[in-house]
Amino acid sequence: MGKRARTPSDRGSYDVEAEWSTADLSLLDDLKRAEDLLPDDAPRALLSVRLSVLTDDTTSPVRQELDLRILARERGYRVVGVASDLNVSATKVPPWKRKELGDWLNNRAPEFDVLLFWKLDRFVRRLTDLSTMIDWCLKYGKNLVSKNDSIDLTTTAGKIMVTIVGGIAEIEAANTSTRVTSLWDYTKTQSAWLVGKPAYGYETAEDENGRVVLVINKDAYRALHWCRNAAMRPRQASARRIVKVLVRAGLCGPGLTTSTQLRRLRNPALMGYRVEEDKNGGVRRSKIVLGSDAKPIRVADPIFTEDEFNSLQAALDRRAKNQPTRAPGGATQFLGVLICADCGTNMTVQRNRVKDRSYMYLRCGKCKAGGHGAPNPHDIYSKLVEDVLKVLGDEPVMTREYRQGAEARKEQQRLEQSISYYMTGLEPGGRFTKTRFTKEQAEKTLDDLIKQLETIDPESTQDRWVAVHNGKTFRSQWEEGGMEAMAADLLRVGVKCKIKRSKVPGVRAPRIHMKLMIPKDVRDRLILKEDDFAEAF
């Protein structure tokens, strides 16, 4: 039987090659014709098709879609879309993070009532993911239906399964957290290497007893000792020079940075001790873990002796610039908002030190020498805040909320049935035309019902997103959250500020021109959208 690949006009191409036979296409047309006969208020179904790898042993996406369409016909559902996510692992990618299904769940929830999938393992492979999806469906009034599993949130068995799955998922999450915390706490006290990523300079191997141990990586050993010798010379090599030589020699990858290399050289794990991260005001460092005897726990042979390590630290301290503590949000405010007008790249803060004075400049990534540079970044931040508040400060803070139309639809249906009942009774020979009193009362009741029906907004009968004002303006919200909150909102909605620098004759600092670029649909973009699938959910 002849086969042809499905064309984009049919529904949209699959992500992997999936051929539709003539018989498949004929069945698809029959199923679509059957859908055309359904009433307008038929439940709307979204089909979820997923496959990790297309092989002869797997159920093809074509077969999954046709089986689900047949199930929809049997249940009286109208298919409104097919979310096909192929070459996607259900173990690694939960439903809400898949390209097509995730878009439906996060942005197009009002467009469907039922989510159909072929089999549970085609939908999720983690119990916690299933529990999250069940919670989401109950919150938004959706139903989950599986063709080959007894999952249906409208049946008694389905509701029982919801309770069981939710309880098991909660227990599993609590046990997992306890086990992970306990394992790490136990690992810190052991000299054997149990879990974790070794520090630079070491790698894991198996000893003669089959246990995992840390051994010294020969190439890293050579690189680290060369770095120490270079730092200990009378004319000490800079960190940038050290990195350049290591990359050129092939001892380190091309992505190595000076900050990464300095962290490696300052890690006390190079003495063979167990360490843990020590966050001190945003500065990333490692500190030695002490055992029950108040002595360092040795987990490997040392790359540097204590004397070698201490002398290296002293040499690094002599050349250190005593930079200020790393800011939690980074050195550059409004990163991604401030861009160069000439090359279009982000403007970032760079520090220059001349003798005892330190200077900060905003520079771009592609212009020669970073362009002319924009001095006094804080002045630019202040001007940007002033311009943004003028344009967007008085905009109300709107939050997207989901409204279901089920109750309004029931009320509309009740009123329509009642109106039909009274209209039939007022026809010649009807039950309300026998006396003048009953006719007048029926006409009065009919008028009241019609007025009630007219007050129902047609939109309220539909599942929909609505924007609700939370009582604040963005000016007040940004005053509470500071520049960090403003920067996050501007980046979210796509607001940009172009920085143009022009050289002034006889003046070292260039003239700065700022142009605020605001999207036309900024009001829609400013609406805050709740993340239903955040970790807390």
TrEMBL record:
Gene3D superfamilies: Putative Large Serine Recombinase, Chain B, Domain 2 (3.90.1750.20), Resolvase, N-terminal catalytic domain (3.40.50.1390)
InterPro entries per UniProt: DNA_bind_recomb_sf (IPR038109), DNA_bind_recombinase_dom (IPR011109), Resolv_N (IPR006119), Resolvase-like_N_sf (IPR036162), SSR_resolvase (IPR050639), Zn_ribbon_recom_dom (IPR025827)
Record's keyword terms, sorted: DNA recombination, DNA-binding
Chain ranges of the Recombinase domain: 199-322
Protein's name in the database: Recombinase family protein
Species whose genome carries this gene: Streptomyces doebereineriae
